[in-house]
């Protein structure tokens, strides 16, 4: 039986909720502590029957700190935690899952078993749609037919590091160099990745929710 379960993406529980009717899940699973990185991930987990912990952390680094803190509180010391880890804990991952959580837990000598359960790929129809709008954007900027074209209203919003990678691979990120075209990110992990590939991030949500993302964009304009 698994001891602990970690979920850092909403994609896994959504997939599992589709399959739950045909999978004979051991009732003991629902007694496990289940850690979730955010509200979007927790909603489908609850629909399956779990009671997620940690959704207010918002990113893997903070979730790892919470997990270690909870374990130390439970067992009295990190040394006792390590003694209690008789079997690896399960971490369901995708092909592009960052290693932040696994590195931090393993640095505390907490063994993890990472199981890849999904892969992410860019959808061609979405990329074609994006290419069309990027082309249309450049045309409007250069066209005398749209002298009122308001560049301040243009935002590139990214919800994951992998989304940034897909856009980069298709050469569609050049538009961020246009004045008044800004980049917003759903959280610190995505923003850090954007900065690491040379993008200038103007707004970062303090928590990975649409409302917090909108607040970050509004605050950007307030600071001008």
Strand order of the largest sheet: 2-1-3-4
What is the CATH C level class of the largest domain, in words?
Answer: Alpha Beta
CATH architecture of the largest domain: 3-Layer(aba) Sandwich
| Tally of strands | 7
Structural category: alpha/beta
Percentage of residues in DSSP E strands: 5-15%
**CA-CA gap between termini:** 55 Å
Number of helices: 9
Number of domains: 2
Determine the fraction of residues in helical runs and give it as a percent range: 40-55%
Major sheet summary line: 4 strands, parallel
CATH topology of the largest domain: Rossmann fold
Give the overall shape: elongated
The ordered H/E elements are: EHEHHHEHEHEHEHEH
Q: Give the low-pLDDT segments.
A: 13-23
Rg estimate, integer Å: 21 Å
Mean pLDDT: 76
Summarize the structure.
This protein has helices at residues 11-19, 39-48, 60-75, 78-84, 100-107, 124-142, 161-169, 188-196, 210-222, and strands at 5-7, 34-36, 89-94, 112-118, 155-158, 182-185, 203-204. The chain is an alpha/beta fold and 224 residues long.
Write the layout of secondary structure elements.
Layout: E1 5-7, H1 11-19, E2 34-36, H2 39-48, H3 60-75, H4 78-84, E3 89-94, H5 100-107, E4 112-118, H6 124-142, E5 155-158, H7 161-169, E6 182-185, H8 188-196, E7 203-204, H9 210-222
Parallel strand pairs: 1-2, 1-3, 3-4, 5-6, 6-7
Describe the structure.
The protein has 224 residues and is an alpha/beta fold. The protein has two domains: 4-118, Rossmann fold (3-Layer(aba) Sandwich), CATH 3.40.50; 125-223, Rossmann fold, CATH 3.40.50. It is built from nine helices and seven strands. The strands form two sheets. It has a four-stranded parallel sheet, sandwiched between helices. The protein has a three-stranded parallel sheet with strand order 5-6-7. Helix 1 runs parallel beside helix 2. Mean pLDDT is 76; it is low at 13-23. InterPro entries: 4pyrrol_syn_uPrphyn_synt_sf, 4pyrrol_synth_uPrphyn_synth, UROS/Hem4. One of its GO terms (molecular function) is uroporphyrinogen-III synthase activity. This is Uroporphyrinogen-III synthase HemD, variant. One of its GO terms (biological process) is uroporphyrinogen III biosynthetic process. Residues 28-213 form the Tetrapyrrole biosynthesis uroporphyrinogen III synthase domain.
